[in-house]
Amino acid sequence: MLNKAGRDIPSVIPGFKEVKLYNGPFAANPTGRVVGPKITVNKPRSEKILKSIDQAIEATGLKSGMTISFHHHFRNGDYVLNMVVEAIARKGIRDITLAASSLTSTHDAIIPYIEQGVITAIETSGGRGKLGELFTSGKFLKKPVLIRSHGGRARAIEAGEVVIDVAFIGAPACDTYGNINGIEGKSACGSMGYAMCDAAYADQVVAITDHLVPHPLYPISIPQTNVDFIVEVEAIGDPKGIASGALRISKDPKELIIAEYASSVIEYSGYFKNDYSLQLGSGGASLAAAQFIKEKMIAQGIVGSFGVGGITAPFVEMLDQGLFKTLFDVQDFDIPSIDSLRNNPNHLEMSASYYANPHNRGPIVNKLDVVILSATEVDVDFNVNVITNSNGVIMGASGGHCDTAAGAGLSIVVAPLLRGRLPMVLDKVHTIVTPGETVDVIVTERGVAVNPNRKDVFENLKQANIPLMSIEELQQIAYDLTGKPESIPVTDEIVGVVEYRDGTILDVIRKPV
Asked: EC (predicted)?
């Protein structure tokens, strides 16, 4: 069956009860009600603190066939997921569904437990390293990996499509009754935005901390009313992998050209005015663009309304300098951002649902004017891939890519025209993560292409000193330099399913030959 994005989706996919086709970014009309966790009771002066993760597994009644969840705020410094899965395996529990907000290369340690049948299904935003290679192989898991965006995951949890039996929350700071924040302790990660939905909707919640403090802890990111048990361990993460001192501003000439073009697109787009809102990525070109944008805002006396998303030091600098009034923060990438969340009352923590859930009464992405996003590859229909590499192997994450592209007034995708000897503008991307009808501008070092649907933006950009061209012209430049690449041969076996943020199926990932 062909969906609205032109992708051939099987009517039956192993492990999936229903196949709902993507029919456009705003076509789905939700029905039903938001679900909730099981009703429970906490008796006066009862004890939540347990001695070990093993004891917590026993206390929650975790059994084979259940679903567990984790958050990814610790990124490559995460210890919690690996520790818990190892403990589950020791207890002989099998057939677990792992519903993590995202997975990184540090989680390669769980591969043996996938091979042993401890984990047999995975739902996540993405996978990297050897874990991504395992997903692409189609081995060991009972069904294809399900890829959701950050907003789509929050929606699925609240709609009851993901039923979390036990959520294990890595807690940088936790008091003796279960209040949690992410801005204190040796493993401080900043915002706990992705863990908030898990804590609010899971049937049981275990906080795992290396910084246990007397009650009450404040400020509170996740309240005691959402936490059943607490386990204190020596370390929940490696601070060096959780947050860098400050993410690098690119010195690469190619990335600097892309950043300069992207900032000019913003400046002349018609959105660059007082009280505009902005989201930046954490890649080299996006961070460099932040510097150019800051200079333009100062020169023109522009003060933005809010910055949003995963927060980095350049955004913090703009907040401190009065260039933005507020930051809405779902995760922090560096130490300056964590410090800012701790100290600046205008730096606000938000949940993934507040950020990007399309089926609530107002995600902040719906008020977003401009977003800069990266891409692994794009195509002539403006579709974007950020999940599979040039060999069709899963190596990235959906993140909030399709959420912000859909919500923003102007979505800008930055990417080099070539990576090595490979063109990045194709006839068709290998995997669609963000549909082209929500992408407005593609910026490369060779030129800038505007979606034909955005004639208003194209007319505005004629004033900018940037090379405007069609997407086909950009593609031809790439092909002239490298030749036209052959499509990646694949089998009929589906190893991954890309769900759009509304719960419909946007694309499937087939096993490469």
From this structure: 2.8.3.10, 4.1.3.6
